[in-house]
Queue: 4 jobs
Job 1
Amino acid sequence: MPRSARSRPARSSARTSCRTATRSSRSSPPDCTRTGTRSSGTSSASAASATRTRCRSSAAWWGEALLEPTRLYTSPLLDLIEQHPGAVHSLSHVTGGGIAANLARVLPVGSWVEVERSTWQPLPVFRVLADLAGTPIEDTEGTWNLGIGMFAVVSGAAADEVIATLGAAGLPAWTVGSVSTGARDLTGFEQGAKGVDGGAVRLVGSYAG
């Protein structure tokens, strides 16, 4: 959520923006030296990496990338909520289940958002894992977070301030899409998840880099 790469997909009838907080240094240009699978899909990553042990992702060896501890967001997010009362509508930690499902479950029923892939560059370790598995990186979105550690659904009016606050706390953040409540065909969207009736989410476009 810092130096934001702003993307505005569909126009929203509800003035709400969707932000992401991530461990990687992504703002405008991504910092491709950062690695780490965070807490999403680590067992799958370990299984994939067993096929090759000397694969190098950016500046980190496999072992370093897979063993890097996950980032804890509790303190900075509690501070964010305190500093911006009413601005944060919901939060979603992107762990098992991937990107769309984790965001969909914290959105209201009847709402939808298109997450723009072009707003960030997946960490190098995920591209290497996808290559090892022989699959397009888009096919891993339902398992790994691809560098997004947390989604924050916030008021559109407070979006820039939220991004600045998170950046000051060392959490890079940016806009990935805008939440809408307008009627539309939701074919291809992930709708709700993990036993929760929520909103609808799909990823669109191509990843940066």
Job 2
Amino acid sequence: MPNITARQAAARWGVSDSLARRILADVDAVDRDLETGAKLYDQGAADTAYNSRPGRGTRTDLTADVMPAEQVDRLLADDNIPVAQRAMWALMSNERLRLGDVLSLDVRDVDLDEGIADVDHPKLDADARRVPISDSTAQLIRAAAAGRDAGPLITDGRGRPVSREAAARFARAAAGASIHSFRPKPHTVGEPPRFGTEQIAAADLRVGDTIFLNTGRAVTVVTVEQVKAPSGAVDAHINKSTDFPVYASAKEQLTIAKRDGK
């Protein structure tokens, strides 16, 4: 089968050159064009990568149900899964980062001593730029970084950045789920309770409060800090009895499961 360049692949598939290059990021080049120096790819391997990418139309992968917490925990603890993939999943599940924000992280964006990650270009202005990182996520990040002091945080087995397409394919193959199912939806914290349990604003939480999460976990608030993000949004950072934080808008309504004196 003939070899093709990224530009030829783009013309063949009817997509932009930049999209063709992103699709081919996970395909090994077999040679270079002698005249232009462009990388050459096996046409069959290129077509396979193109056909396995997320398709057009209704993006059901973006509206996937949230993965049960117990399943996430099992996957994050599975040493047979590459640690970079598990670090990515942990940042999405525990720290509630979007896939694009995780893949854009550089090793230098994460301060494991302080337990903070800096997201330079969040999708929404209201998103917090400085994101607290739990101890369990930090362990996975440290292993994924493998002593590197710069470069993409999430890489594949060859040290290359992981693309969205590759992340989606791996999640389907290893977890049997959409990559987006790892990230709790914004409404999974503080959705109105079924049996009329009291709701309060996150800013009004007190030490000792226990709150409901729709992932099925009830958590005890250890400390509540008012953190002002660079965007100007004020968030409540809630350290819980479980090993990851909830990061919610101060005005967000949270469901109180238990409060001292009640």
Job 3
Amino acid sequence: MSRSFATAFALLAVMAVSPGLAQPADFPIVAADGSAFPAGVRVKKAGELSVYTDAHGDVLYGMDMRTVLRWAPDPAKFCGDACKHDWKPLLAPASAPVNIRYPAGFDKAAADDTFVDPRKAPDWTVIQGVDGPQWVYKGWHLVFTRRDGNRASTALDGSDDRTWNTLKYIPAVPKIAAPAAVSTAFVAGAYAFTDRDGRVLFTGKCGDGCQWQPLAAPMASSGLGDWRVGLNGDEPEWTLKGRRVFVADGAEPQAVPPEGKILRP
């Protein structure tokens, strides 16, 4: 891997965003790809988010190999000695083929089809760890559980300068039949319809003097699936199953009025 590539990831590793909304603590959460979990791996609720656990209910943490790159030439072998005293690797079956490596192989990934490029990895791959074949999540997160203390706790999320992060689960993005103006986002524990700018769509009874903003529609559209074009006065707007569709205020793209109900796929 080139020095410039390593430097780029080291810089990324110190960038922070809102707590609780990232996977790991300073990188965006990526939705699951829908592939099967390793044997024993489950999902449980942890506040507004969900996290992966092992068969015993111990929370899975990812050691972010992008952050330990600052201290280890081969991050897959970083957790030894004192680290192993606190963290237990989530080992893959001994017979599982190792199909990802880090950092070696970036420049050879295109020519070597026996290893997955971490930048394009599926949810679960296997790397050669300190104690043998070990699970990796999303190409970057070497998977561990705590050896002692409250092993079901998420309290160590972001610890050791964002090296350790709970593996947060977001379901695969749903496929929708909707107008081009409509997308989806993960909001309050489930997917919601949004406009193209990420503002949540909602419905409800808009009484006299209502200031809610309808989702504008083209006059010539014939609709798509449950989506139809209606008229409120002279202005065309989208409806969903006969209900008017409104757009959250731009200043708070995920907030809807108390009388409103978020529209979900």
Job 4
Amino acid sequence: MIYYNHFHKTFFDNMKTLAIVGSPRKGGNCDILVNELAEKLEGEKEIVYLNDIRMNFCQACQKCQTGDCIQKDDVNYVIDKIREADLFVFSSPIYFGDMSAQAKNLIDRFYQISQNPDKTLEGTKVVQIFTQANPGDDFDVYIDYLKCAIYGYLKMEVVDTVVARGTTEKGSYDQLAGAIQQIEKIGNDLL
């Protein structure tokens, strides 16, 4: 069973947005930032919380080269939703220099897209949202790697990246103020 928030604005329904919250903490910093962006966007919006879905690990069986992944979990649904979306919002906390395990597992399952010529994410716009307790830019190399090696390889277009640094407290709007300001600009630019 997939749990998600579904937003609709009837005055503009052309743009479809799928947002992923890779943090296990509802009401946490990633969740707040994703919802801030969702409120700014028009069109159909859906937020999927990875911690709430059934998601197995890739088994490297190569069956995805000729069809869907054979895993009987929720990831095929999520990937179909990403493929239908005009905008993909990917959020994760940075834990020990890397995205959360939930987020990494989903990215690993993108393998099925890279292996199947009938599937594509080419042209899908991406907004990356990261939170980290570290106040520095030590992990920017990793974030840039995602932009180039993952999204670039899949021919997706990263339109912006938000990194909320020094966010040590859950739900601290003071610590998120700079990121929220950047999200407001992104929302206005995407309208």
